[in-house]
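Researcher: Here's a chain I'd like modeled. Treat it as a single chain, no partners, no ligands.
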Amino acid sequence: MSLDFISIEKIEELAQQYGYWAVFLGIFLESLGLPIPGETVTLAGGFLAGNDQLNYWIVLINAASGAVLGGNVGYWIGRRGGWALLLNVGRTFRVGEERLEAMKRQFSENTARTVFFGRFIALLRTFASPLAGIVQMPYLQFTLYNTLGAITWASVMVSLSYFAGQFVPLEKMVAWAGQFAFVMLFIAIAWITVPLWLESRKAKQIVEADAQPDDQPASGL
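Model: Modeled as a single isolated chain. C-alpha cells:
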C-alpha cells in the first residue's frame, strides 16, 4: 500500500513530464520500503503508452528494473538493521518480541512465495523485500524470486493499463488495482495469523491438560 498524498492527476502529470524516469523511480522507491505510490505510477506509464505518449517496452523495462533494484536495496536494508528497527516499532505499538519472533518464523517459512506474490499485495509490495532481509533469506534465492516477481508484476500492470487504458479511465484502473491488492492483503493476513492463533490455542490446551490433577477417583470397583 502507498500513501495517497499525491493525486492520480498529479501522478499522471509527473509521468508525462518525466516519462520513463518517473516509472523507474516510483517503483524503485516503493520496493525498497518507502510508501511511494509506485503501482499507480506504473499504471500511469502503461496508460500513457497505450495513448502513444510513451513506448510500451521501455515502460515495461523501467518498471521491472525499478522493482528488481529497489527490492535488492530493501533486502539489504532489512538484513543490516531491519530487525532492530522492527523491535523498536513493535515496542511503540505494544507488540512484544515473542509475538514478533512468531511472525518472523511464520514469514521465514514462506519467504519465496511472499517475495514473488507480494508484488500484487498491498503493504507487502513495500515491505516484502526488507522482511526477506530481516529473516535472512538466502540472497541468491531472494534474487531469483524477486526478479521473477518483479517481471511478472510489471508485465501484468503495464499490459493491463496499456490495453485497458484505451477503454477505461486511469482512475478506474487504479481503483480496481487497489481493491484487488487489499483483498490479497486480507488473505495474506489470514494466512499468517490463523496458523499462529491455532498454534497458540493448541499450546493453551496442552497447558490446561497438564494442569489437571492426576488423582481422579477410581470407578467401577
